[in-house]
Amino acid sequence: MPQQNRKTVPDMDDFHPLYLRLSVTERCNLRCAYCRPQTGEKGMMRGSTLSDAEILGLLDLVGSALPIDKLRITGGDPLLRPRLPVLVKKIKRRFPSTLLVATTNGLLLGRQAEELRSAGLDSLNVSLDTLDPRVFARLCGIDGLQSVLQGLKSARRAGFGKIRINTVLLRSANGGTLHDLFRFAGNEDFELRLIELMPIGVAAEIFDQEFFSAGEALEMLSLRFGVPRSLGLSGTAERYLFPNGQVLGLIRTQSAPFCASCNRLRLDSRGWLYPCLHDYEGIDLFALWRSGRPEEAISEIRRAHGTPGVKRPIKDWTSRPMIRIGG
C-alpha cells in the first residue's frame, strides 16, 4: 500500500489572508477625548522606536508566516513619522500585491497627500467626528477642522479615488448632527463609516454617557434620507445603500461584535504583535526577530492569527490607550 504524503510544514495556502495594522508612531497632534488621557502620558508619545529597516524586517517576518492581503498604516497619527512616504514606498516595493492603506486625522494630509499617493499608498481613511469647529476644538483639543478639510481636498487632488471618513459615534459631539456629516460625505464622494465607541483607556470613563449604537444612528439617517438597502458585511463594516445612491458603513464594535470572523493582527510601533484590541499582553516580535529566531516568530504569528478574539466584559477591557496599539 503506497505511503501517503504528509506535509510537515504548513504552506502559506493553509492560512487565511491577513489584514495587518501597522502602527509607525505613538505620537499624535490631537488629544481626542476618547483616545488620549489628559495626564499621565509619561513614557508615551515617544515616536517610533523602530527604524524603517527594522519595520521592514518585521514585515518580512509576518509575510513569511502569512499572506498579507491588506496592510493599514496607523499611529498615533502616522503622518507625524518623519519621511513617511519613503517608508510607504519601501513597503510597496516589498509587497506590491498587498492593498496598502492608511488612517490619519488629516491635519498634515495637505502637505503629504501627493507624496503618499506617488509612493504607492492605495487609499485613505480620515478621522472626522464633527463639522462644527467649536465641537471639534472641544473634542480634539485643537482648532484644526479647516486643516482636516483642506487635507481631504488635497487627497482628492492627489488621485486617491477611495477615501473614507471615520466617525466615532459620540452622543454629545455628533448625536444630533450626523446628517451634516452624511451629506458632506455624499457631496464630496467620500464613504462615511460610523464606528461605535469602544470603552478602551480614557473612553471607558465617558462610555456610559457618550455611547450610542450604530443602529440608532442608522435610524436617525433613515428618517432624513430614506430607508437604505443592506449591502451586507464588508470586512468589519455593514454597508448600506441609501435611495440617493450614497453608501454608509457601520462598524458595530459593541452592539454586534465581529470577533469570531476577525482576520486582523496589530503590530505596534515598538514591534509588539497583538491578535486583538482586547489583549492585555502581546508578542514581542521585535525581540524574536532581533535574536534571530524566525521559526519561533513564524509559529507565534500563525498561532495569534488562528486565535479569534474573545469579547471581554467592559470592566475587563484593557486600560492601555488606543494610540499605543494603533486602533
Tag the structure with descriptive keywords.
327 residues; alpha/beta; single chain; twelve-stranded mixed sheet; 12 strands; disordered N terminus; 18% strand; TIM Barrel
Q: Overview of this structure, please?
A:
It catalyses: GTP + AH2 + S-adenosyl-L-methionine = (8S)-3',8-cyclo-7,8-dihydroguanosine 5'-triphosphate + 5'-deoxyadenosine + L-methionine + A + H(+). Its EC number is 4.1.99.22. One of its GO terms (biological process) is Mo-molybdopterin cofactor biosynthetic process. By secondary structure, the protein is an alpha/beta fold. The chain has a single domain, classed as TIM Barrel (Alpha-Beta Barrel), CATH 3.20.20. It has helices at 52-65, 84-94, 109-119, 133-140, 145-158, 171-174, 178-188, 203-210, 214-225, 285-290, 294-305, 322-325, and strands spanning 18-23, 68-74, 99-104, 123-127, 163-168, 191-195, 229-234, 237-241, 247-251, 264-267, 272-274, 283-284. Strands 7-8-9-6-5-4-3-2-1-10-11-12 form a twelve-stranded mixed sheet. β2 (68-74), α2 (84-94) and β3 form a beta-alpha-beta unit. α1 packs parallel to α2, α1 (52-65) packs across α11 and α3 (109-119) packs parallel to α5. It is globular. The model is unreliable at 1-9 (pLDDT under 50).
